[in-house]
Write a structure and sequence with these properties.
Layout (H helix, E strand, L loop, with lengths): L1 H31 L1 E9 L3 E2 L3 E8 L3 E2 L6 H9 L5 E10 L5 E7 L7 E8 L12 E4 L4 E3 L2 H10 L5 E8 L2 E8 L2
């Protein structure tokens, strides 16, 4: 009887512990991460199934070949067109307190502010070398009430917004958007 009770407790506690384990990294990042600011441009304010939100595009999503480390360039040449490559993007604070890309590497930096991302290898690599590469950080969507999402879209159609992001160990959490 006691063994049966123990097994029930064990079976029901595993999903709870799993959910708690999944919630800890983002919560820890939002509580202890370094706050940085990234320049954005909104794309689309609503989705029929997900509600009102602002889809964001970040300036740091486009990097030039000069910003890629030699090891990333070698890895790109070994991969197929259309593949993705996990990368670490080292950031530095610009003169206007907005963070910009310093270097893209495939090795985790030992210090400084950096983001984990995936570099998309363009399909046209063989024909002509690209002028820039696209990196995704999974910071695309900012959920807001419908009225706020529409206001953000209208205000930022002429001026870029600034995203407040908390960063810790390459993990990023979008905290807020500041509209001009």
């Amino acid at each position: 009887m006691k063994n049966n009770l123990f097994m029930r407790i064990l079976v029901f506690s595993i999903p709870v512990l799993l959910l708690i384990g999944l919630a800890i990294p983002p919560t820890w990042t939002s509580l202890t991460g370094e706050e940085i600011r990234l320049k954005t441009e909104p794309i689309d304010p609503t989705d029929l199934f997900r509600g009102s939100y602002v889809t964001l595009y970040y300036e740091i999503e486009q990097v030039t070949p000069e910003q890629l480390s030699d090891s990333v360039v070698k890895e790109i040449k070994r991969k197929s067109e259309g593949d993705i490559l996990p990368v670490f993007v080292q950031l530095e604070k610009g003169s206007d307190n907005i963070y910009i890309v310093k270097k893209v590497t495939n090795k985790k930096p030992s210090s400084g502010v950096y983001l984990k991302g995936t570099l998309n290898i363009p399909y046209e690599m063989q024909a002509t070398p690209p002028e820039s590469f696209h990196i995704q950080y999974n910071l695309d969507n900012y959920y807001a009430p419908k009225k706020d999402a529409e206001e953000i879209e209208s205000v930022t159609s002429t001026k870029p917004a600034v995203a407040i992001v908390k960063v810790k160990n390459g993990r990023a959490i979008l905290m807020d958007i500041i509209v001009p």
